[in-house]
């Protein structure tokens, strides 16, 4: 297993009117993050908030190229980013114990926080297609170039780790500095990872190792 | 944090404990147990809240020390608000150390504040003052700052520093309004009433009038020789002579002070000090002995001069006044002792009053029934004190016990 210290490149926030960052996603232009009762978008070049959608947003956030997906209570909402309307909802696989969310190749992947699991589900029905076990609390989840990454955060100890999607085995670990946690996780498609910072209200950019 | 926990925590934070419970009622994982505990506490079911928080504390893993410590702090606050002092101070200390080690300053300060309130409640003013000095209120959220300022005011009032008390109460009020918790603002307001309500009566040259706490402070700083019937002491020129355990001497001193500058006939003194209707020869002999003792106690403050019909006080400087409780009823002596703000055991009161433990017990029960005294603790650890103590918000300002936030 590869092991290294996470390198923080940049910090955004805290953002006015949003004291928590839960889920994080990236639509190619803006970074979206869930702050409890809102989905907020900011420009990663300037850090300026560009818009917000009033929708319950308690945990993970994802983007499939057209829609946003947002966990609220024990459901996953499918949202049209243009209108902010909730188009449909499906039950979340962890029955409310869900934390991270990401989209990959036609399916949704959901982190189950204290269940220490990652579920692959059908985005139409919510049916569980497969489940991977982790050995840590799962916060954010994301797929980057065929690699499955997730965040973990137990008190002061937090890591971003790459796991084998078949076995759940940890392949690589980035240790976050003491006192800095990762709630949501998303890649920018290149070598930057956007990490939600929970109660700190910040979104941090962590360098993805090559 | 997971989704439903986030939703439940948000409900709690907006004062909706039922909404929080609705979301996590059926869950038994540690964060859910902690949230349910806090929600139950806010709904007033302290017993259930304690059990839930205890279970949560136990269930959090070894990597969740902060979450565990916050649960312990919440448990301590519930114990304090329900006046259950059996909560081990050691557990609170350990939780405080954990929170500091993990740089959770806000909850660490909250834990310290609880410790101050506990010390105040058990009547350990010095300890409370020392612990208070360790808190920096500046970074605290408004609700905790209000609680802190109430504790400062509580100590200042006990120490008769009304200016400091007034300033602390003003800051507490400001913080309570910032916190936007009406119950807390109401508590600060009712605490402030102590300063506007007569705290004692002044008896001087045969006339009585009510005194505010501020006036009591000024009086005690003046040249006057004060026979303090609230605390059973004599004060003057920076000296304090305690007659707490000498009720006969105190009764004589008070009778003489009330008559000053006049004298008091022997018969009256015998009646007041010995509660005898007629003074016979043996009473006169006893009076001579007790006056001799009083002379010795008073030596630095005043002389006790013999007159034709009895005795009179002659202070070394200034005038002589009596400071009496605002209301003197049947159990005034007990109230007088409790007025020092300390927590007394009934046996200590019995010794101080020279009364039987059973008599004191009866007096305390009567006073408790009319809300004039309050007790806490059980069995031998039971202690009594007089309300009001403007140091304890009775609403819960619980810490957030959740991990990963």
Automatic annotation (TrEMBL), chain A:
Stored InterPro entries: WD40/YVTN_repeat-like_dom_sf (IPR015943)
Concerning Gene3D superfamilies, the annotation shows: YVTN repeat-like/Quinoprotein amine dehydrogenase
Taxonomic superkingdom: Bacteria
* Protein name per the record: Glutamine cyclotransferase
Biological source species: Sinorhizobium fredii (strain NBRC 101917 / NGR234)
Give the organism's phylogenetic lineage. Answer: Bacteria, Pseudomonadati, Pseudomonadota, Alphaproteobacteria, Hyphomicrobiales
TrEMBL record, chain B:
- Record-given protein name: Helix-turn-helix domain-containing protein
């Amino acid at each position: 297993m590869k092991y290294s210290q996470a390198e923080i490149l940049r910090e955004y926030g805290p953002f006015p009117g949003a004291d928590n960052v839960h889920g994080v996603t990236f639509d190619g232009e803006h970074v979206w993050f869930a702050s409890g009762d809102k989905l907020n978008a900011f420009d990663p070049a300037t850090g300026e908030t560009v818009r917000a959608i009033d929708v319950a947003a308690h945990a993970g956030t994802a983007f499939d190229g057209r829609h946003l997906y947002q966990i609220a209570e024990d459901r996953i909402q499918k949202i049209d980013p243009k209108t902010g309307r909730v188009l449909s909802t499906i039950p979340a696989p962890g029955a409310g114990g869900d934390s991270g969310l990401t989209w990959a190749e036609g399916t949704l992947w959901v982190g189950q926080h204290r269940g220490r699991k990652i579920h692959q589900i059908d985005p139409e029905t919510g049916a569980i297609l497969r489940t991977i076990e982790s050995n840590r609390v799962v916060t954010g989840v994301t797929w980057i170039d065929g690699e499955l990454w997730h965040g973990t955060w137990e008190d002061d100890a937090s890591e971003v780790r790459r796991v084998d999607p078949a076995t759940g085995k940890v392949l690589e670990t980035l240790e976050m500095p003491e006192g800095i946690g990762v709630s949501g996780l998303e890649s920018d498609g290149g070598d930057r990872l956007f990490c939600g910072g929970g109660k700190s209200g910040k979104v941090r950019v962590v360098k993805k190792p090559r | 944090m997971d989704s439903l926990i986030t939703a439940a925590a948000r409900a709690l934070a907006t004062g909706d404990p039922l909404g929080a419970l609705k979301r996590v009622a059926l869950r038994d994982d540690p964060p859910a147990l902690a949230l349910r505990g806090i929600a139950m506490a806010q709904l007033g079911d302290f017993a259930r809240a304690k059990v839930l928080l205890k279970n949560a504390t136990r269930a959090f893993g070894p990597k969740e020390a902060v979450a565990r410590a916050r649960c312990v702090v919440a448990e301590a606050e519930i114990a304090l608000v329900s006046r259950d002092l059996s909560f081990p101070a050691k557990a609170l200390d350990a939780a405080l150390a954990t929170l500091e080690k993990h740089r959770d300053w806000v909850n660490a300060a909250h834990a310290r504040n609880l410790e101050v309130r506990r010390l105040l409640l058990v009547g350990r003013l010095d300890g409370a003052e020392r612990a208070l000095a360790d808190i920096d209120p500046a970074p605290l959220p408004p609700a905790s700052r209000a609680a802190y300022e109430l504790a400062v005011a509580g100590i200042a009032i006990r120490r008769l520093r009304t200016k400091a008390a007034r300033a602390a109460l003003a800051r507490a009020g400001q913080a309570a309004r910032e916190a936007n918790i009406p119950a807390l603002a109401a508590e600060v307001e009712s605490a402030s009433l102590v300063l506007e309500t007569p705290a004692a009566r002044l008896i001087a040259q045969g006339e009585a009038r009510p005194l505010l706490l501020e006036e009591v402070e000024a009086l005690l700083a003046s040249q006057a020789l004060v026979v303090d019937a609230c605390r059973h002491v004599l004060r003057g020129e920076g000296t304090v002579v305690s007659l707490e355990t000498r009720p006969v001497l105190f009764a004589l001193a008070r009778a003489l002070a009330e008559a000053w500058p006049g004298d008091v006939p022997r018969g009256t003194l015998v009646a007041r000090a010995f509660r005898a209707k007629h003074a016979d020869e043996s009473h006169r002999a006893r009076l001579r002995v007790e006056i001799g003792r009083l002379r010795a106690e008073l030596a630095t403050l005043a002389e006790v001069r013999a007159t034709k019909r009895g005795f009179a006080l002659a202070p070394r400087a200034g005038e002589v006044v009596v400071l009496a409780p605002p209301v003197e009823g049947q159990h005034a002596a007990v109230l007088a002792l409790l007025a020092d703000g300390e927590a007394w055991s009934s046996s200590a009161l019995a010794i101080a009053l020279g009364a039987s433990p059973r008599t004191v017990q009866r007096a305390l029960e009567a006073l408790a029934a009319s809300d004039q005294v309050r007790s806490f603790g059980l069995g031998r650890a039971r202690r009594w004190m007089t309300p009001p103590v403007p140091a304890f918000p009775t609403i819960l300002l619980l810490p957030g016990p959740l991990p990963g936030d």
